[in-house]
Specification:
The chain is an alpha/beta fold. The chain has 2 domains: 222 residues, no CATH class; 151 residues, Restriction Endonuclease. 34% of the residues lie in helices and 24% in strands. Strands 2-1-3-4-12-9-8-6 form an 8-stranded mixed beta sheet. The radius of gyration is 37 Å and the shape is elongated.
Length: 433
Amino acid sequence: MLKKHPNLVIGHKGLSGVDCASWGDDIPNIVDYDLCIIDQSSLTQETLSDLPIPYQRQIRNLLCRYIKSNGELIVIYDQTLGDKRQTNSDWCPVEYSVHEESGNSISTLTYDFENYVKQIKSWERFLFKALLPSDFAGMLKKEQSDKVSIITNALVTNREGRALSWNLKFGVFHEQSGRGYSTSTFYNHDPDVIFGQITFLPKLTHMSSGDSIRTFLKCAFNIEQTTEVPKWVLDLPLPGLNTIDAEIDLHTQSINKIKQQILDAEKRRELVINYAKLVTATGTELESAVADAFQDLGAKVVPAKYSQEEFIVYWRDTEYLFEVKGVSKSIALTHVRQLMHYMLQYQEDTGNLCKAVLFGNAWRELSPDLRDQTDTPIFPPNVIETANTHHLGLLSAREFFEAYCAYKRGDVSGEFILDSVLGVDGVIRITST
């Protein structure tokens, strides 16, 4: 017997304890549910005529995927309705037929859904044929040579043995090679793989479609259902209802205001967390974070225009070429030489000497307090010596991050940080006095 709790019903609204959707509603993502129940009996001729043709096809496509993923589908079936254009069973992955005939003889062959089956007092039709469409069979195959068949197990029959309820499973048989010198092939008697299952149960003849599905949920899964309140009840002169509705509206407005405040706070929080990119990021993400920070401090930042430097910072009528590196080890001499090449290109283009800063986010995978230790130097001696000789600044991400956070707290000015960073040769230290 199916043990899972049903959590999707298609064909109804207003049911307790399950997600549900009426025919014509937006189609839920069926493949995301453990167990799906479809009430075909609620798909009346009137409802069917209002459905666009693609609607049932979309449900069928989802159900085919659902069965392939070992989903378990329960169908409350009724008479077949419709025409050549569409019928009320086009949503089903398999093609099945019902024969209109009535009777009272009932034989139970299983304990599955026993409490619901006990409610069957009579029957008006029986199931007699289930065919596997080629497109669905193709979805279940792993190899082209595989065979797919429906494994049918009757749950309830009439005296003649006609199925009033059945369970369908989908077996895949892989082609087997003959043994020894034999070149023949064969298929095992039992399927190699079984996908999903569909259980068909009849609508109770003495109940409406809605009462039948409520009875099924109660009998099969002990999910109690309450009577759905008609919409016209809200038009009755119920004492105090308007006052309560006004109170609900007031609280809803307060909740919406608080939600907006939370949203705004989350955006501010995200901006603050983005400061950490100065000590975590690499590549263009780090370049953008550094450029944004210098612009925030009060400098003018423009894209590269002389060579392949990352960007140019303008401060106190002076241009500074910036090279930004985020690495998992120390800053290397090749990084300094790269910036020196940009400085020479600048001198060749303008005829003037230029200032330059190498921003190094070294040991970026370590917490900042573990960087610049004996075994984690940010700028090795050869890098520092070369920078001093060629008059370029070395700014560590750790040093700048601490200063920038102090600026955002209001402890130091942006002007102070820019004056401390720009125009300094060698390792840059930012200390307030």
